[in-house]
Amino acid sequence: MGALTACSIREKEESADLGLNIKVFSPTKVVVGSQMTISGSGLSGVTEIVFPEAVSVKGFKVVSDGMIRVTVPAGISAEGGQIIVRTADDEAVSELPMTMGHPVISGYSKQPGESIQGGEQLTIYGKDLEFISSVEMLDADGNPVIIPDSQFYRKGTSTVIIIVPKKVYEGTFIGKVNTVNGLQFMMPELAYEPAAEGGHWETVKKPFWENAPDGPSVAWSSNYRFCLEGQDTNPDGPECLAEFPQDVWNRLKSETFYLIVKSENPQVRVTTGWWDPNFRADDYMPGDEAVVDNEDGTWTITLNISGNADFCEAIDTRHILFTGDRYTPVALCFDEEEWVPGGGGGHTEEQLVPFWQNAPDGPSVAWSSDYRFCLEGQDTNPDGPECLAEFPQDVWDKMKTETFYIVVKSENPQVRVTTGWWDPNFRADDYMPGDEAVVDNGDGTWTITVNLANNPEFCEAIDTRHILFTGDRYTPVSLCFMEEVWVPGGDEGPKKDIFWENDGGPSVAWSSNYRFCLEGQDTNPDGPECLAEFPQDVWDKIKSGNFYLDVASENPQVRVTTGWWDPNFRADDYMPGDEAVVDNEDGTWTITLNISGNADFCEAIDARHILFTGDRYTPLRLYFLK
To answer: 201 burial class (0-12, 13-18, 19+ CB within 10 angstroms)?
Structure first.
C-alpha cells in the first residue's frame, strides 16, 4: 500500500540512550488499524505497549532493540496522549503525545448528477484524508473495482485526487471511499462513461508551493525558507515561510523538483537556513544547463538534491533556503504524469473548482450572517458554532494568498466581504454589477473575483474574526479556486519506460537470480551478487513512485524482499486476486509496485539490494510509465 506518513517525526538531539527509552514514533497522527513504528532503545525486552485510555497491546513485532512495529488498537481516547512501553521491570513514556485522526469528507469536484469519463480526475476534499485507503467503483461489467491508495495523488492531508478507471461502468452509480479505520463514505451519484479509445500521458509541473502575488524579491535575503512539518521550532517565533508534510519533504529530497522564478537575470543559491552547507559550490545562473529561460519573464531551475546526502540530512533540522539575488520565486513544483484520454488531441483549460458548495436550500443574503467561514479549529464561541464551515489550513492559506471566486445566484447582487465582527471590511465599497470583478454568467448567476493577498490587516483579522460574505439580494452557490484541467484528446497509449529487460533468464522458484542494486553497491568481495545495477536517478524513482514488473506465468507468486531476504516489502506475496496483480490475458501479468510508503524497506535496499523472488514465474521487464 502506498500510504503516506501523516505527521513528521519530531526528533530531539540527545546523547546515546541507555536502557529503555522512546525516542520517536511515526506517524504521530493515527487511526485504529494504522501501522505505527516506535524507535528508541532497550525495546527488545518490551512485553506491553499502553496507548491512551489505558489500552494495552501485547501483540506486536520487535524488529530490533531499537524498533517496534505495532497496529494501533481500538478504544484509544479521541484526544490521544502519551504512549508507554513496559518491560518486566521498567517502563518508558513518550515525550510527545500521539493524536487521533478523524477523516471527514467535505466535498467532491463533481456534484450529484454530473458526468465524468474514464481517465478523468475526481478530487475529494476534507481533512485527515491521509487515512483514505481505497476507493471502490464499478468495472465495465458492473463488478466492484478497487482503486488502492498507491494510485492516489495527494495534496497535503486535505485533498485526494483519484483517476477514474478507463474501463469504468457506463451508467450512474454511487462509489465508496474506504478508510484505514473501517469508515466508509458514499460518493455522489455520477453518470460514468468509459474513456474514449486511445489517449496519452502528459507530464505537467504541479506546484506544491506558490508564492503570494506580492511576495518580496530576493536580494541575499532569508524570506524563502521552508521546513519539514513540525520543525519550525525557534522559541522566538517562526522562521519558515511554509512547512511541508512528510510525503512532500521526502519527495523533495529524493526526486527532481523545480523552482520557477520571475527575473531578468537570476542568481539562485540553494542553502540551509543557517547558510551552511550550500547544496553546491556555485549558484544557479543563466548559462547553467539547469536554468531554462521560459521567454515570458520567468525561468525554471531544475533541482535534484538526492545525491548530496549531507545536505539532505542538514535541511531536516536547518531547513532549506532559496536565496541569491535579482529574482522573485513563483512556485516550487514536481513533475506529475496525467493520462489524457480519448482520440483527436486535447488541451488544458482553466476551470473553477469548488472548495465549498451551498446546500440546495441555503438561505438568501439580506444583510445576514449565515455565510461565515473560519480556519479549522477557530469556531470557538462557547455559546455554540458561528460558522457554516471550517476550512483546513492549506485551503485557508490559499484563500489569503491567491485569487478565489464566489459564485452567486441573483438578478442584482450586492456582495460585502467582511469579518464575522463586521469590521474591518475587505474594501470600502461592495461588489455590484458594473464592477470589473463582477461578471454576469448569463444564466442567473454571477462570479465575483476576490483576492485578499494585498490587504494584510484583513488577512490577519479573519484568522480570529472569521470571514463573512454578507450584503443583499443574492444566494451564494459556491466558493472556488481556478485550476487547470485537461480536455480529453490524443491518440497514444501510455508508454513503457523500460529500465531492465530479461534476456533469456531462468524462471523463479524461491531463487535469488533477480537481485538488483544501486550503482556501485554490488560490493561482495567474492564476486557480483546482482543481475544489474541501476543509476541513482532510476534508484530514486523506484523508491519514490509507481513502477511495474511484467512476468510470464500461469499463476505467479511474487515476493519483493531484500538480497538478505529480510525485511520483506509487505507481509503477503503478490498473487492473482490481489488488486495490484493484473492478468494481461496473453500469458503474462503486470504487478504494480510502490514501495515509497515503507521507509524501512527503502533504507534497507540501499545496502541489502532488492530481490524479486517467489515461485512459478519468469520476470520479463521492469519499467515506469510515461
So the answer is: middle
d(CA 592, CA 589): 10
How far the first Cα of the chain sits from its last, in Å, is: 21
Pairing of strands 389-391, 515-518: unpaired
In CATH terms, are 21-100 and 104-195 the same topology?
yes
| Number of helices (H), then strands (E), in the chain | 6, 46
User: What are 57's strand-pairing partners?
Assistant: 49
What is the rounded CA–CA span in Å between residue 548 and residue 527?
28
Enter the pTM of the model. Answer: 0.38
CA distance 215 to 449: 20
- Predicted pLDDT of residue 337: 65
Q: For the segment 83-105, what is each residue's pLDDT rounded down to a tens digit? A: 999 999 999 999 889 899 999 99
Query: For residues 365 and 437, what is the distance between their CA atoms, to the nearest angstrom?
Result: 19
Query: What is residue 312's three-state secondary structure?
Result: helix
Q: CATH classification of 21-100, choosing from 2.60.40.10, 3.30.1300.10, 3.50.50.60, 3.40.50.10420?
A: 2.60.40.10
Residue 232 near residue 239 (C-beta atoms within 8 A)? yes
What is the model's pLDDT at position 199?
57
Cell of 41: 532503545
Return the pLDDT at 5: 32
Q: Which fold has domain 104-195?
A: Immunoglobulin-like (2.60.40)
CA distance 609 to 89: 39
Residue ranges of domains in the chain: 21-100, 104-195, 205-337, 350-487, 496-625
Which of these, 599, 581, 603, 578, lies nearest to 590 by C-alpha position? Answer: 581
DSSP sequence for 247-301: HHHHHHHHS-EEEEEE-SS-EEEEEETTS-S-SSSS-B-BTBTTEEE-SSSEEEE
Q: What is the helix (H) or strand (E) element at residue 64, kind and residue range?
A: strand 61-64
- Among residues 38, 601, 592, 104, which one has the least CA distance to residue 392? 104
